[in-house]
Design a protein that fits this description.
There is one protein chain. The chain has strands at residues 8-14, 18-25, 34-35, 39-44, 48-54, 57-63, 69-71, 76-81, 87-94. It is mostly beta strands and 96 residues long. The protein has one domain (8-94): Jelly Rolls, CATH 2.60.120. The strands form two sheets. A five-stranded antiparallel beta sheet has the order 1-2-9-4-7, with no helix packed on it. A four-stranded antiparallel beta sheet has the order 3-8-5-6, with no helix packed on it.
């Protein structure tokens, strides 16, 4: 199996209260398996569908521009852009 390219994170803010990261996914790019250490909010900046590999199996997550969503601490997954276009979102991790 050919390795997927890495999604590109750009940390915009990282202080005692929050970490704000822009994530950009070329077609086929992935984050790699990770576990979230904080509650977080995702703010889509593109439309599209992400494929999530989870311990429970694959899930699709729809990104809709202007429709944020949140997830609790402890979420474990690999996030993949399985589509033909670049996808991007802002992730806001809440440290307190």
């Amino acid at each position: 199996m050919t390795p997927r390219p890495a999604a590109v994170p750009t940390v915009q803010i990282d202080n005692d209260a929050v970490r704000v990261t822009e994530w950009r996914f070329a077609p086929g790019a992935e984050t790699g398996w990770h576990r979230h250490g904080y509650d977080y909010v995702v703010v889509p900046v593109t439309h599209g569908v992400l494929q999530l590999e989870t311990p429970e199996g694959p899930i699709e997550a729809v990104l809709t521009l202007g429709q944020s969503y949140n997830r609790p601490v402890g979420v474990e997954h690999n996030v993949i852009n399985a589509g033909p276009d670049e996808l991007a979102f802002i992730e806001v991790e809440i440290k307190r």
